[in-house]
Amino acid sequence: MRLVPTVVGIATVISYLICGVLAQQRTLSIMPLGDSITELGCWRAYLWRQLASAGIQNIKYVGSMTDDKTCGSGTSYDRHHEGHAGHQAIDIANIVDYLTTWLKPFTPDIVTIHLGTVDIVFGKAQEDTLAAFDKIVDMFRGKNPNVTFVVAKIIPIPSSPAKVASLNNALPAWASKKTTVESPINLVDQNTGFTVSTDLKSDGLHPTDAGDRKMTTVWYPAVLKITQALQNNTAL
């Protein structure tokens, strides 16, 4: 007897195949690291929802911090993160009870980093901030030699445009020197196209909701590409 495939039968097979692929994918840990721009903003929620809309599953945000922000309508999001208001990159890297302690329970696969704003506000030397970036990267690699980074050129600080430009202009060379095949550093530009009058709050430091959404559009392509590559075991 010849068996004729039915629509229901084909759909069932496809469903089993999809479930099988998802079952084989390990859950990826993403750690959003930063200062209050990471802690207080809604871009983490918007990024989570965009990844979900793109069909990304088996991911989680990790970190010692959580929040209770609603962040507009839409699906719920993983509220864990490592955003710490008022924290300089220099402190995160060098104070013993900071990143060393925060990392103990976690082994992130992907780390997003938006840091340097508070360092500039407090007048820290750029070379010290970049040295802190080095140390932060090394700490993560100590937990996971294959961790992938998405490091941002920071959003504007209207009171210190020259210092922001200098730090942002230094990041490509820093990333090129620090990146490795096993643990790549991907640089994204959160500064270009960020409009101070509409995307920044009156405090001159934190993004408005429009700014958070603009930040999401910059994070999203990089995080999506990395997540897909890691889950499918393909080259970045």
What would your notes on this structure say?
By secondary structure, the protein is of the alpha/beta class. It is 47% helix and 12% strand. It is built from ten helices and six strands. Strands 1, 2, 3, 4, 5 and 6 form a six-stranded parallel sheet that branches. α8 links the parallel β5 (148-153) and β6 (185-189). α7 (126-143) runs parallel beside α8 (161-178). The radius of gyration is 20 Å and the shape is globular. It starts with 6 loop residues before the first helix and ends with a helix. Residues 7-23 have low confidence and may be disordered.
Outline:
With 236 residues, the protein is an alpha/beta fold.
Keywords:
single chain, 6-stranded parallel β-sheet, 6 strands, globular
How would the global form be characterised?
globular
Largest sheet: 6 strands, parallel
The tally of helices reads 10
Q: What is the CA-CA span between the terminal residues?
A: 48 Å
Residue windows where pLDDT falls under 50 for at least 5 positions: 7-23
Q: What is the strand tally? A: 6
Order of helices and strands: HEHHEEHHEHHEHEHH
Mean pLDDT across the residues is: 90
- Report the helical percentage: 40-55%
Cα-based radius of gyration, to the nearest Å:
20 Å
| Proportion of residues in β-strands | 5-15%
Counting helices, strands and paired strands, the structural category is alpha/beta
